[in-house]
Here is the input.
Amino acid sequence: MTIQEVNNSENVSNVFEITAPMVEPKMVICTSPTERRFWVDNIRDRVQKSMTQHMVPFQSVLSCLMPFDVKWKKNELEKHLLLNPILNWEGTPIQHLGNIQYISMVAVTNSNQEGNQTRLLVLFPSELVILSFDFQRANILYQV
Here is the structure.
């Protein structure tokens, strides 16, 4: 995006133009020279900052759903499980196990490891599936 001050003409004063790829140019008419200066300086500053900052990647849908402490988040998590691949999953596709009866986040301790690990328990009509998350909580994975 670029900002360009437009020189005062007979008909219009305190104007600047905003242009950007794939967007029609916009002429902005301010109420005073001070207001125009404010907008031009601040928009240029924002554009400069956005070009120099490192972009933080969007984590994932899963990170937005955690914790799934409200009904809509739990519903979205169930949809996510049935519509997206589960890493390391083998055998019958999870979609063929039936409707999810219950889903819960739990802490699990293995006898050969110290500390708790977060797991996702998913109860189907005839199966209990224990899932985990990758380090960034971007993917769900199946671990034996």
About this structure: The two ends are 51 Å apart (CA to CA). Helices lie at 33-52, 61-65, 71-83. DSSP finds three helices and seven strands in the chain. The first strand starts at residue 2 and ends at 6.
